[in-house]
Amino acid sequence: MSKFRSIKLKIKKLEPVRDRYMFTDNRHPEKGIMSTVLGILSVFALALSVFFSYQNGGQANMRYAAAAFVAAIFSCIGLVLGIMARTEKDIFKLFPNLGIILNLIAFLFVIFIILLGIGVL
To answer: What angle do CA 4, 5, 11 make, to 5 degrees?
Structure first.
């Protein structure tokens, strides 16, 4: 029996898994989600307007200007919503922060395009 040693199996007790989960009352604010959606729409509309204007030889049609104007309005509204959502208590800050960043990028891009158009830059 010296060749065959007894194999001891260690059976681990099942322990509660509460240690792995974090229970919280935080939520994703609706204003933050809406701010992010408006930011994505603004950035996408501005990018498409610039791309199609480039494809048209640098001449922007009225449609592209209208899309950029609507994107500027969306980015202003989204920026306000993101700031309002960021000031709420007991929230996850992912969507408000993402909305603020996207809308700020879109708004600064609109200002950049306007400054290029009037010849300041």
So the answer is: 130
Give, in degrees to the nearest 5, the angle at Cα 8 between 5 and 10.
165
Give the CA angle between residues 30, 20, 87 to the nearest 5°: 25
Domain ranges of the chain: 30-118
DSSP state, residue 81: H
The Cα angle at residue 67 between residues 66 and 70, in degrees rounded to 5: 85
Q: What is the pTM of this model?
A: 0.77
Q: What are phi and psi of 91, to 5 degrees?
A: -130, 160
Among candidates 34, 74, 68, which has minimal Cα distance to 51?
68
Percentage of the chain beyond pLDDT 70 is 82
Smallest Cα–Cα separation from 44: which of 74, 22, 7? 74
Q: How far apart are CA 62 and CA 113, in angstroms?
A: 15
DSSP 3-48: SSPPPPPPPPPP---TTT------B--HHHHHHHHHHHHHHHHHHH
Question: Which residue from 92, 69, 119 is spatially nearest to 22, judged by alpha carbons?
Answer: 92
